[in-house]
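Tip: read the tokens left to right.
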């Protein structure tokens, strides 16, 4: 039944999946930051926005500091809470039902830790790992059927 709480085992598996996904997405972003130069900023922005395709609700970058895309502000209660925490450098996870199915959702705070950040986000200013800018939000369906 869709209303039933998923088993602890299914939740643990979704959590493990989210950890794998987080590491993969961070590796891809790390590559993108490393290859960004003042000369290729427009192409780099396009590349990141294709990776974070708006149709993919399973991974989103969210922030309120002059977001590069208007849809990148919080879209629901989870994102609102998670972003508020991320702006203090805190991560957040939650098991939630969205559109009738269970998801393990996780938010990872991102700081202005790399010199490339401000090439694309000119409002961030010089590199400062203590400056929290927003969050990477991932969600993984719990249980079969995906
Ligand atoms: C090559 C350009 C580029 C670099 C470098 C870059 N970003 Fe972004 N960033 C983007 C783009 C493009 C988006 C919008 C992605 C989307 O949702 O399609 C984005 C989105 C974001 C968001 C969500 C809010 C918004 O502005 O839309 C945050 C927060 C963010 N980036 C933080 C960072 C941080 C922190 C760094 C450095 C560690 C960084 N970015 C480096 C291009 C870049």
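Filled-in amino acids:
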């Amino acid at each position: 039944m869709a209303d039933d709480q998923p088993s602890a085992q299914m939740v643990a598996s979704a959590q493990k999946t989210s950890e794998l996904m987080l590491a993969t997405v961070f590796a891809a972003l790390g590559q993108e930051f490393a290859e960004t130069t003042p000369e290729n900023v427009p192409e780099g922005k396009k590349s990141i926005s294709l990776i974070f395709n708006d149709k993919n609700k399973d991974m989103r970058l969210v922030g309120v500091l002059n977001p590069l895309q208007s849809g990148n502000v919080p879209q629901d209660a989870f994102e609102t809470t998670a972003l508020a925490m991320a702006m203090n450098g805190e991560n957040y996870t939650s098991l939630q039902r969205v559109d009738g199915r269970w998801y393990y959702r996780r938010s990872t705070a991102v700081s202005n830790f790399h010199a490339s950040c401000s090439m694309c986000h000119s409002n961030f200013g010089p590199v400062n790992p203590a400056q929290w800018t927003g969050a990477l939000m991932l969600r993984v369906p719990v249980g079969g059927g995906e």
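The pocket of heme C is lined by residues 32-33, 36, 44-45, 48-49, 52, 61-63, 67-69, 72, 110, 112-114, 116-117, 119-121, 133-134 (CB under 6 Å). Residues 26 and 50 are 16 Å apart (CA to CA).
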